[in-house]
Design a protein that fits this description.
Helix content: 10-25%
Largest sheet: 4 strands, antiparallel
Distance between the termini: 21 Å
Number of helices: 1
Number of domains: 1
Order of helices and strands: EEEEEEEH
Structural class: mainly beta
Strand content: 25-35%
Radius of gyration: 19 Å
Shape: elongated
Strand order of the largest sheet: 1-2-3-4
Length: 119
C-alpha cells in the first residue's frame, strides 16, 4: 500500500481505498468494484439450491419436507474473484436482483478519515 492510499476497513472481508474510490478484498487486495457502486457487482455469484444446505428431513413422497422450496427461495453466495473468499451470502427469491446492503457516503468518509489522519 502506497503513502497516497487511504484504505478503510468496512467489513470482515471488504475495505475501501478512498484515494481510488474502489472496493477491495481484505484477504487478497483484489480490486472488486467502484466504491460508489454495489460491491456485489464485482464478485463471483453462485446461485445455490437451498436443499444443498438444508437437507430435506422427509423424503420426496411428502409434499412438505422441511427444506426450503427452490421455486421460492435461492441461496446466493458471493465470492472474491481473486482468492475465492466468501464475502457474503443471502436468501432471495429466484430471479431477484442483487441487493444493496452497504451504501456509504464516500465524500463524508473521505473528509472524516483524512481529518483524522492529518489531525
Amino acid at each position: 500500500m502506497s503513502d497516497t492510499t487511504q484504505r478503510v476497513d468496512i467489513t470482515e472481508y471488504l475495505a475501501i481505498d478512498l484515494t481510488a474510490e474502489r472496493w477491495l478484498c481484505r484477504v487478497c487486495g483484489h480490486d472488486i468494484a467502484g466504491a460508489r457502486e454495489n460491491y456485489k457487482s464485482g464478485l463471483l455469484v453462485y446461485d445455490r439450491d437451498p436443499r444443498e444446505i438444508h437437507r430435506p428431513i422427509l423424503d420426496d413422497t411428502y409434499e412438505f419436507t422441511f427444506a426450503p422450496d427452490p421455486a421460492w427461495c435461492r441461496i446466493i453466495e458471493y465470492y472474491c474473484p481473486g482468492c475465492a473468499t466468501q464475502v457474503e451470502v443471502e436468501y432471495l427469491p429466484p430471479g431477484h436482483p442483487l441487493t444493496r446492503d452497504i451504501e456509504l457516503d464516500i465524500d463524508s468518509l473521505k473528509r472524516r478519515h483524512l481529518s483524522a489522519v492529518e489531525g
